[in-house]
Amino acid sequence: MDQLNKQPDHKLEQQILLEEIRLLHGGTPFSYTASFVISLIIYYVLLDHVESQRNLNIWLITILTVLFIRSIDSYFFFKSDKQDQVKSSWRIRFMVGTGIAGFCWGLLPWLGYSPEIEYFAFIMVCLIGVIAGSLSTLAYRWESMALFLLPASLLLVFRLIIEDRSFSDSTSFVLAVFIFFSLSAGRRIFNNTQQNIRLRLEADNRERAIELMHQKQALHLQNTPLAIIEFDINFNVTEWNKAAEHIFGYSRNEAIHENILRLILPRDSSDAAEKLWQRLLNFEAVVGYVIENKTRSKAAIFCEWFVTPLTDEENNIVGIAAMALDITDKKQTELAIIKSKEEAEKANQAKSDFLSSMSHELRTPLNAILGFTQLLKYEKTLTEKQQSHVDEISNAGNLLLELVNQILDLARIEKGHLQLSMEKIKLSDCFKECQAMVAPLAEQKNLSLDIKTETDGYVIADFTRLKQVMLNLLSNAIKYNSENGSVSIKVTQKENNVVRISIIDKGQGISEELQQEIFQPFSRLNAASNIEGTGIGLSISKQLIEMMNGNIGVCSKVGEGSEFWIELTGKLAFTTAIESESKPAFVSNVPDSTSGTGTKNILIAEDNPTNQTLILSQLETLGYSADIAANGQEALDKMADTEYHLLITDCNMPLMDGYKLTKTIRERGNNTLPIIAITANAFPEIKAGCLDVGMSDMITKPVDLDTLKDTIERYLN
Ligand code: ADP
Known about the structure:
Blueprint: H1 2-26, H2 28-46, H3 53-79, H4 82-85, H5 88-111, H6 117-138, H7 142-163, H8 168-223, E1 227-232, E2 237-240, H9 242-248, H10 252-255, H11 260-264, H12 270-281, E3 286-294, E4 300-311, E5 317-326, H13 328-377, H14 384-415, E6 423-426, H15 427-444, E7 448-450, E8 456-461, H16 463-479, E9 486-494, E10 498-505, H17 512-515, H18 537-547, E11 551-557, E12 561-574, E13 602-605, H19 609-621, E14 626-629, H20 632-641, E15 646-650, H21 658-667, E16 675-679, H22 684-693, E17 697-700, H23 705-716
The structure holds adenosine-5'-diphosphate (ADP).
């Protein structure tokens, strides 16, 4: 730091020394000429009156030789360049020269001694004149003045003392006073000169620095990509740089004195300018204000503005300094990104719409396929081969139904239509239901299943959706397991009230590379082609868990097995490892065809002939008979003639749909008739809509025989 501070001072000292030596040499033409002339005059005046003419000649030759040598030195000094002049050798030579010159002048009373009193007085006067004259040229350096003055005057004083004339003492005293005053005057002159030189050099340096700064600024102003514009309070342009010319298309000459608003603002953006002006009036600097501007060729561009008010000493705004950056390209890219994002969102929306309507449409024919297949399964007359074919149709149909359901889920999640109802869920409840559903699968593959159904604890989640995720993970663990392998659940309490549920299998495992894409939709990785699957389950699971503010992940080692884990907010009371239940909890409900009462009248409102046949057959299998109406109006007509104990209605029908039919029945005061809706729409909000209009329950297509039986029994009994 010290070093840094000293650096500029050192430079200044160098400059001062240079200036001094130049001033000293600068005075030599005058002083040498004067010395030359005076010494010649002295010589001629004294020639006939000196004690020894030889001595006077010696003096003259000596002083002229010294003058000559010093003149040559000065000549070379002026010839040398600045860097050379700084060298101390010039100064030393000048000092030595001055000392010798002073000594030579001091020799005058000795070598030019005249016994005649008036000539001796002449010598004294000349010497004092020379000494006084030297003050003006030598005082730039005090030492050089002293070096000249002291030998010259002291030798005179000695001569006076030796002379011992009557006036010697008093003259010596006056001379001593003269020497003293000359030296102190010289010192003062030197100090003042020094000060002046210093101030002048400092001012020069400052001026040069400012000039350099101005040059730099001018260079920046010219080369910056920022348009730099200044205008007065009447909006007339006072400054317009090259970038402004480039951005707005007006040359400097065209722009200066023109109204900035007229030049670069589109007509309809005066509001923006007004707002900007108001902010400036409040002395606010405006940073990064983006507005639309126009160029000379009327093209629209976008500029980002940085604007500051310029004020006078009394704080009145006298103008505005503004910088503008052309961000049209950036803005256009931004707009293009927004547009393509909107287009992508639209395309995604269209995809989701298509998926959801397609899946919905698929459910209706699936209803017939699965329904009739289920009926066929109970047909006693089928051969074993036919039974196995029916099983194949049923399996394929169920897989298709699963795919349709999953696609529907995916579409609903993407559209943001899936609503969750978050609640405290007892882990044992969830695990028990999962156990019941996956145990038969595990048994089929001879797998040991260890689901901790007695786990005491809870998580915050949506029950149905958590079960869906668990079932997906458990069924994967079973599907992708090896023969006689095992599937288990491990539950651990983590920090911050987080519960981790791990589903662990001893299956084929997943390589690290494949783990990266496992949660992507439709990625079946390298699943064997004989293992049924859609490749969507894990992607839905991830989205569902994240919607429940949780995390999902996988750790796996090829050949050893996988651990799929989910983390949700929750708490474990205690965790006990319990033995997996040996028997599956799931017991298939074989429909009991004797359960139907036969005496109850059931009315079916359904427009699709296939579905009409199906539902009639299903009811028949369950031991019921029913009347059919092809739409709501027909159903009302039939109800006018017959008293029904149950109405099963499709939601979407021509003439009068299921909703209208229900509303009409309820409006007519019949609030006791159970009305069950059958719909291909599996969404919870559809069920809510059904209940809202007064229906008692809802069954989704494809209609499962067990569900149909349970529902009918519930309402008929
Ligand atoms: P699906 O099982 O219907 O194919 P998922 O999304 O549930 O779809 O799983 C995606 C893929 O991840 C599966 O096709 C399978 O290759 C792999 N996978 C999932 N779970 C496991 C597991 N426990 N062990 C090995 N691979 C698995």
